[in-house]
């Protein structure tokens, strides 16, 4: 018994083996679903994008006017909210988010309502489904990203997969609850008149349980919307990307703006869903059949027109192909990716920039779902990722050669500390770190083990933005702080900082930042491959753009300004 308690059950290994088995044996199915799902969502996004923004705002406001019994205040709020999103240049992000939420919600409803009906009719089914729903509802949403990436790679499809799992339970539970709460007298009356099971379902159960079912659907839509931020970590485009970027950089202003955008969308979708759940007596006078047919026909013609126009616009653009650049929300990758995207666009390529978490970037390049990444810190920081995927990707070499550096950093006013060996009880014996997936976090852990004077120290894992905020707060009050630092990075131009000497070399020597590409890119797009291969600049170039961004410039504008000021260097990349 004691041996059993002391021996760890290999639960993680069992789950990994199960996921690997599914990935290997159902890869064809997952590829099919990825292809079909992406096509459907591209079609929907292109259709929405084809509608002029102001026209779509007016149409939604008019729809709200009639849906909400000709009350003016709701359509005004809808119009002004959407106008604010458009003013803040978040319109395309909004459309991507709407696509993600609608598709996720529809899939969850199609699955959830039948499951809820099954639970209401069978105690055995209820006893099986109930604990599964408990797990789905209490499991952290981040966990669903892992199998989503394994099955479908990156993009909107895995985002939908994770959103469906996360948002499904309310629809199932409320459908089951609504049907079970129907009066037994009504059920017995239906049976006494010879009602068949299907007649009872469609003429008694569903109509009387409509309120509960729509309440569950409403919650499903809200939960799907809440997943947009999490799904952005695996390449799902939308408002979540802006929120994630703001969190990583501790950018309160932009984070709040993107948060307001999500709130506006949530309010609109919530109110429209609630309107669908009004009792029939509150629906107002019905339109005549002829008027309904005319309105439905006009809507159908409009949808077909904009759908065809959207597909035409998406396919008729004159470019040399589409290339996808994956990047993590870290300053060096944001800068280099924006610069390279604009250079490739100048050469006639259509460039998609996909924001991903660091380990997912490497996996996406190795799987061929992302064409290239310009943020591989080698040979130390991303050593683990490189060893795992080196046979499945193409290392194009450094664009910043041996100018990158990792280390422990302190403010210069901590003059009693110049080396890691000098650390004793400063900063409450804590090192402020960044994201757990970063290589510098592993290097810091090794440093804590290698230096005896750090035996009582610990690394506090947070995020790059949180670390920056802590550093600024400490410097403003001249408090002691030790952070994980790297170059190139803008903090060395903003603050008076110093690296601590590392006698044992656990934080590594000078590194390079390489460009990595998927296998086959050289054959598929030789000119783009050559530009990526020629890409080379200095750390000072990157830091100057970083500082502009930190001072409030948009990353795209800061990259454009640098390109204009360094045209000779850029021209050498495209020769």
TrEMBL record:
Residues 94-273 form the ABC transmembrane type-1 domain. Its main location: membrane. Keywords: Cell membrane, Membrane, Transmembrane, Transmembrane helix, Transport. The chain crosses the membrane at residues 48-66, 72-87, 94-117, 142-166, 220-246, 252-272, 293-312. One of its GO terms (biological process) is choline transport. Residues 548-563 have a biased composition (Acidic residues). One of its GO terms (cellular component) is ATP-binding cassette (ABC) transporter complex. It is found in: Cell membrane; Membrane. SUPFAM superfamilies: MetI-like, Periplasmic binding protein-like II. Residues 564-575 have a biased composition (Basic and acidic residues). The keyword Lipoprotein does not apply. GO terms for molecular function: amine transmembrane transporter activity; carnitine transmembrane transporter activity. Residues 548-575 are annotated as: Disordered. InterPro entries: ABC_Gly_betaine_transp_sub-bd (IPR007210), MetI-like (IPR000515), MetI-like_sf (IPR035906). It is a multi-pass membrane protein. PANTHER family: GLYCINE BETAINE/PROLINE BETAINE TRANSPORT SYSTEM PERMEASE PROTEIN PROW (PTHR47737), GLYCINE BETAINE_PROLINE BETAINE TRANSPORT SYSTEM PERMEASE PROTEIN PROW (PTHR47737:SF1). Belongs to the binding-protein-dependent transport system permease family. In the C-terminal section; belongs to the OsmX family. This is Glycine betaine ABC transporter permease/glycine betaine-binding protein. It comes from Tetragenococcus halophilus subsp. halophilus. The gene is opuABC.
């Amino acid at each position: 018994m004691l041996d059993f308690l002391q021996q760890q059950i290999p639960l993680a290994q069992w789950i990994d083996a199960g996921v690997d088995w599914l990935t290997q044996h159902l890869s064809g199915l997952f590829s099919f679903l990825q292809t079909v799902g992406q096509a459907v969502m591209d079609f929907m996004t292109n259709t929405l994008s084809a509608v002029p923004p102001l026209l779509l705002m007016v149409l939604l406001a008019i729809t709200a006017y009639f849906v909400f019994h000709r009350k003016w205040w709701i359509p005004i709020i809808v119009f002004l909210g959407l106008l604010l999103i458009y003013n803040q240049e978040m319109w395309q992000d909004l459309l991507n988010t709407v696509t993600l939420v609608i598709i996720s919600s529809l899939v969850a409803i199609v699955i959830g309502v039948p499951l809820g009906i099954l639970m209401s009719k069978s105690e055995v089914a209820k006893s099986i489904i109930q604990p599964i729903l408990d797990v789905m509802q209490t499991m952290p949403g981040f966990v669903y990203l892992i199998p989503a990436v394994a099955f479908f790679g990156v993009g909107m499809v895995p985002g939908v997969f994770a959103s469906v799992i996360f948002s499904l339970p309310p629809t199932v539970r409320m459908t089951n609850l609504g049907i079970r709460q129907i009066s037994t007298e009504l059920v017995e009356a239906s049976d006494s008149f010879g009602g068949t099971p299907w007649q009872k379902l469609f003429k008694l159960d569903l109509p009387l349980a409509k309120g509960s079912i729509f309440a569950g659907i409403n919650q499903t839509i809200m939960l799907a919307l809440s997943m947009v931020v999490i799904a952005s970590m695996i390449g799902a485009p939308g408002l979540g990307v802006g929120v994630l970027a703001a969190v990583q950089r501790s950018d309160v202003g932009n984070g709040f703006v993107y948060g307001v955008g999500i709130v506006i969308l949530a309010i609109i979708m919530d109110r429209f869903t609630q309107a669908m759940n009004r009792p029939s007596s509150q629906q107002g006078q019905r339109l005549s059949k002829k008027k309904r047919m005319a309105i439905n026909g006009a809507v159908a013609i409009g949808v077909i027109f904009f759908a065809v126009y959207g597909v035409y616009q998406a396919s008729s653009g004159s470019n040399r192909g589409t290339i996808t650049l994956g990047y993590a929300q870290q300053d060096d990758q944001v800068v280099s990716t924006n610069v390279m995207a604009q250079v490739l666009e100048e050469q006639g390529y259509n460039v998609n920039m996909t924001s991903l978490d660091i380990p997912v970037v490497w996996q996406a390049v190795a799987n061929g779902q992302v064409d290239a990444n310009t943020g591989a810190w080698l040979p130390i920081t991303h050593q683990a990722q490189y060893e795992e995927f080196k046979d499945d990707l193409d290392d194009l070499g450094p664009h910043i050669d041996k100018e990158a550096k990792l280390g422990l950093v302190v403010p210069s006013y901590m003059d009693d500390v110049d080396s890691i060996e000098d650390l004793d009880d400063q900063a409450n014996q804590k090192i402020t770190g960044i994201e757990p997936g970063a290589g510098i976090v592993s290097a810091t852990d090794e440093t804590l083990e290698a230096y005896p004077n750090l035996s009582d120290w610990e690394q506090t894992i947070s995020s790059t933005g949180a670390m920056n905020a802590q550093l600024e707060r400490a410097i403003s009050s001249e408090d002691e702080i030790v952070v994980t630092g790297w170059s190139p990075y803008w903090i060395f131009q903003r603050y008076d900082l110093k690296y601590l000497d590392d006698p044992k070399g656990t934080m590594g020597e000078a590194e390079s930042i390489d460009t990595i590409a998927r296998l086959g890119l050289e054959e598929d797009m030789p000119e783009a491959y050559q530009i990526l291969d020629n890409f080379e600049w200095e750390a000072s170039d990157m830091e100057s753009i970083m500082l502009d961004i930190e001072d409030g410039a948009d990353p795209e504008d800061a990259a454009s300004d640098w390109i204009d000021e360094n045209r000779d260097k850029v021209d050498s990349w495209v020769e």
